[in-house]
Amino acid sequence: MKISHLVVKTIAAVCLLLASVSAFSSAAPSLVLSEKDITALQGAGGGLLGQSLAQNKRVADMALGEGIIVPWPEDAGGGYTHEQHKRNYKAMYAAGLQYQLSGDKAYSDYVVEMLIAYAEMYPKLGLHPEKKEQTPGKLFWQSLNEAVWLVYTVQAYDFIAETLSEGQNQSILNDLLYPVADYLSIGQPQTFDKIHNHGTWAVAAVGMVGYATNREDYVAQALTGLNRSGESGFYQQLDKLFSPDGYYTEGPYYQRYALLPFVWFAKAIDTNEPDENIFGYRDGILLKAIRTTIELSYNGLFIPINDAIKDKGIKTEELVQALAIAYDITSDRSLSDVARQQERVSLSAGGVALSNIIARDQVIPYPYQSKVYSDGADGDQGGLALMRSGDNETGSLVVAKNTSQGMGHGHFDRLGWQFYDNGQEVVTDYGAARYLNVEAKYGGHYLRENDTWAKQTVAHNAVVVDQASQFGADLMLANARPAEQVAFESSKVADISIGRLNTAYQGVMLTRVLALVKPELANPFVIDVVTIESDKVHQYDLPFHFSGQIIDHNLTHYKAFDTWKVMGESSGYQHMLLRSEGKSAVSNNRLTWLLDDRFYSYTFGHSVQAEVSGKTLFFQLGANDPDHNLRREQGLLRRLKSTNAVFYSVVEPHGEYNGTHEYVRDSSSKVKNLEFQASKLNSKLIVDMGEFGKYILIMTTKSSGSGPYQATVVRDINE
User: Fold this and answer.
1) Cβ contact 530:540 at 8 Å
2) Which residue among 107, 211, 254, 327 is the active-site one?
3) 709 an active-site residue?
């Protein structure tokens, strides 16, 4: 089937004619999977493919055993009816594919019965009783879920369409597929034409119905927007939601979620209109997005910035499907390394090929690298810098977040950072305050603490000025003012990122230099220098969130409190309990903690225009949390009151704790001294690691008051 979206037929009579045409497909499917995929699957087996085929058959057989269960919609996310309708679209897909593979009409009959049951119910539905205010659905509480349902369901229809009678087909089209597609498009233009992951799912669903049923009007709407102007629709989604590096503006968690409708709809376009060369569009932006999704992970889990649930990783269904599509196009054998870790493959020609590579032991490692992923459609909205040493399972990774806001799912944490090492998240990000699909936790919604804590600046490793979040936690203001990725350098000695933000607080410029230093004889360590410039005195708080058990510290005038006090009234501070505090010396303050079997030390100091003593406050989450929604995490907060100021520090992994064999080695920090030197046009942080040498971070400033714009790390050759 060849449908050109460039020729749009809008005459009502033509649309009615199209709606009445029998939409029987050939025996081979015509959307994401094609005859090539079915042939490859029928001639293959064993390995991961055999396991994946067996799993699909188990899902289909279990569905046939349970019969047709189509409950009247009642529950929000996580409730019985919500979850049953999710099970139904997955069961229809599995059974439809099983019919394609086996020809057994028991599977196609199940799909037909399920579709007829929905066709009988859908015209009777009003808005869902638990509807979301802005984007209500009918089958589901929000139309996003309805679009996901349709993306799967139309493929199930496509698998079995040849078995339908004329009457069955017309009922399914006119009472189900077309009404759902209409509701998601003309029924909700505010979502369908939105440049957002909800819009992506909607256009994919409607466009795939168009291809499956010869509805050119649906295809045109999906590709170029409801008014066919090209100002919205799938091409605009591709143009606006990804940076030139394939970074999705909402961050890795939502990049993963949005990836499936992007690659599945693109595959449907490629199947039906190969001359469009959709996977070559915008310099291969979708293939870049797939690779970027892989690379924004550590030890199998996605980097949890913005509204991220922290247990999502590379085994997710979205990336399994995308990986096979990418391999089918590129034949890049390193993708098999990711498939091996996923422990299953897509049921497609690409999945067959990946399974064969793994079975033949021909896997080559995926090439994770230090890199900046630019943000924004034109790559001018800052960037996410990843600095790596070693492999992606146990090596070191520093994440510097110098990005845009990330729309409504973004957090107010520009110039924040994270550190991973030894397979663990060491310097942490909270992610989202949400228990997905756990009905007892606000129906699986984002919790109110997502706004009051998780999104606030103090919940991250970013500077807080005057105990207020960046941009006053104003989303519209934050969306308009991205951070700046000033510089990035990767070398044998160190990877370095410089980020800047001068619009988060009036009259305050923030610059952060992060370096992952790679000594030859010691573990990689992190240098962090935050420069703050202002004409007025402010309170500067620098939170440091870490995971592990505190071993010791060297703070003076230290006191612990019998009664823990709440640290503030708003901006996240209302959730922080002050456990203890001490005075911070100008330099060489140290905290050591243990995580898993490795020790970590945080050595830190500060520099100010006048001699100002600092404080270090230890806190734990849990205040003003009556429903116990927050995790009981910990951190410390460094506090200064000054005009200009510099926070500097080193985070250093060292030693080993072995509980099994009862030994401990190198539990003390190797950092002997930190010395910060500053002049008008440059500054230095000298890290003395004793027998392992001195490493000097040299930062250059263009002129007074502009912050560092260039940095390098050298080993002192004069020691």
Assistant:
1) no
2) 254
3) no
**What DSSP line would sit under 261-302, residue for residue?**
HHHHHHHHHHHH-GGG-GGGHHHHHHHHHHHHHHHSEETTEE
Report the pLDDT value the prediction gives residue 611, as an integer from 0 to 100.
61
The span from the CA of 459 to the CA of 545, in Å, is 8
| Residue whose structure tokens are 């410039």 | 533
d(CA 99, CA 110): 10
pLDDT, tens digit, for every residue of 173-191? 999 999 999 999 999 999 9
Residue type, 633: E
Q: Is 409 a catalytic residue?
A: yes
Kindly report the CATH class assigned to 12-30+67-241.
mainly alpha
Hey, how many other C-beta atoms are within 10 angstroms of the C-beta on 466? Answer: 14
Residues with Cβ within 8 Å of 519's Cβ and at least 6 positions away in sequence, in order, are 525, 689, 692, 693, 695
371-715 CATH pick, 2.40.10.120, 3.30.365.10, 1.25.40.10, 2.70.98.70:
2.70.98.70
Q: 402 near 384, Cβ under 8 Å? A: yes
Answer for the pair 499, 400: CB distance below 8 angstroms, yes or no: yes
Residue 2, pLDDT above cutoff 70: no
Query: Hey, CA dihedral for 180, 186, 188, 194, is it positive or negative?
Result: positive
pLDDT tens by residue, 593-604: 999 999 999 999
Percent of the chain clearing pLDDT 90 (strictly above) = 89
In the predicted model, what is the mean pLDDT of residues 85-104?
97
Catalytic residue among 409, 411, 445, 575: 409
Tell me the per-residue pLDDT of 425-452, one tens digit each, with 9 for 90 and over: 999 999 999 998 888 898 888 999 999 9
For residues 260 and 200, the answer to whether their CB atoms sit within 8 Å is no
Assess contact for 456 and 464: CB atoms under 8 A: no
- In whole angstroms, give the CA distance from residue 427 to residue 429: 7
Please tell me the predicted confidence (pLDDT) of residue 608: 82
Report the alpha-carbon distance of residue 369 to residue 367 in Å, rounded: 6
Average pLDDT, the chain: 93
Angle between helices 349-359 and 35-42 (to 10 degrees): 30
What is the domain partition of the chain in residue ranges?
12-30+67-241, 371-715
Place of tokens 């007074």: 704
Residue corresponding to tokens 């399920």:
114
Write out pLDDT tens, residues 352-409. Answer: 999 999 999 999 999 999 999 999 999 999 999 999 999 999 999 999 999 999 999 9
Backbone phi, then psi, for 573, in 5-degree steps? -65, -25
Give the separation between CA 646 and CA 644, rounded to whole angstroms. 7
